[in-house]
Amino acid sequence: MHKNQAVSRGMFRFLLANVNTGSRSCWDVLMATKSGHWSQGLLAAMNDVTAVVDSDDKLVVIKDKYPKAKYHFLVMPRRKIPSLKHVTKTDLDLLRHMQKKGEEIAERANKELQFRFGYHAVPSMSHLHMHVISQDFNSPFLKTKKHWNSFTTQYFVDSHSVIKNVEETGQWSPDVQDADKLLKQNLRCHVCKKEFDTIPSLKVHIVLHDVTKPSHTKS
DNA sequence: GTTCTAGAAC
DNA sequence: GTTCTAGAAC
User: Fold this and answer.
1) Is residue A7 domain-resident?
2) Distance CA A101, CA A185 (A)
3) Does A65 have pLDDT greater than 60?
4) Which PROSITE patterns does the protein's record reference (predicted)?
5) What pLDDT is recorded for position A205?
6) CA closest to C4 C1', residue
7) How far is the CA of A126 from the C1' of B1 (A)?
8) CB A38 within 7 Å, strand B
9) Smallest Cα–C1' distance to nucleotide C5: which residue has it?
10) Share of chain A above pLDDT 70, in %
């Protein structure tokens, strides 16, 4: 029997009984049963052929399941590194390789758009992952203040600044003290810095900006 | 990370 | 009445 079909008849009845009755969804129950957890989802994604767009012996690149821009990828090391807190100087080559691969993926996806390459200060998902995200932020999955601020405030830590930090101090020493406050900051356009009261009004505004690269850097 | 939804804000 | 956000999820 395939691993994924290994749900007992009793469990199936239990799942059915909980459809629309409990506060947890079927999927939550199933995930808990299989001792998986949403925060471990990137492990599964690494082996999902529909998600993987590139890989080599050191890393895997996947499409973000809920892209917050036209192009949004995650670059992850094959070796298990839980988070930035665990990287040391011995990981510098890996970090540089991840950034270089990210830049290649971005160029391959769209040569015109600006991209950023970096890490969330306090990521929700386990397993080190570098975001490769185009700066249009034009996506139906971008819905909350937390989404917006996680990519447009200092909560988003550029890859090159992580690398520089590890080179100089041997670790990632976060200068981001209160990450929670950054996520609750007022909504501000990442291009012109204009403030907005709601996500929908901000989303209407940002599509008006040109987020293509300056012409002299276009190939 | 997302989904769901109560109740605030409009 | 509708839009929008924020917090629970055992």
Assistant:
1) yes
2) 32
3) yes
4) HIT_1, HIT_2, ZINC_FINGER_C2H2_1, ZINC_FINGER_C2H2_2
5) 98
6) A198
7) 10
8) yes
9) A144
10) 81
d(CA A166, CA A101): 19
Of all helices (H) and strands (E), which one includes residue A202?
helix A199-206
Instruction: Say whether both A134 and A194 belong to one domain.
Output: yes
Give the angle A51-A54-A55 at the CA atoms, nearest 5°: 110
CA–C1' nearest nucleotide, residue A24: C9
Residues 155-214 of A with CB under 7 A from strand B: 197
Q: What is the DSSP letter of A179?
A: H
Indicate the number of domains in chain A. 2
Q: In the structure encoding, which two tokens stand for residue A182, read together?
A: 């950054």
Would residue A37 show up in a list of annotated catalytic residues for this protein? no
Q: What is the pLDDT of residue A87?
A: 97
A135 and A93 within one domain: yes
Judgement on whether residues A23 and A85 belong to the same structural domain of the protein = no
Q: Does the CB of A23 sit below 7 A from strand C?
A: yes
Convert the pLDDT of each residue in A108-134 to its tens digit.
Answer: 999 999 999 999 999 999 999 999 999
> Catalytic: which of A120, A127, A129, A131?
A129
A62, A41, A212: which is closest to A130 by C-alpha?
A62
Closest listed residue to residue A26, CA positions, set A6, A9, A42, A11: A11
Determine if strand C comes within 7 Å of the CB of A47.
no
Could you list the residue range(s) of the whole structural domain that residue A23 is in? 3-36
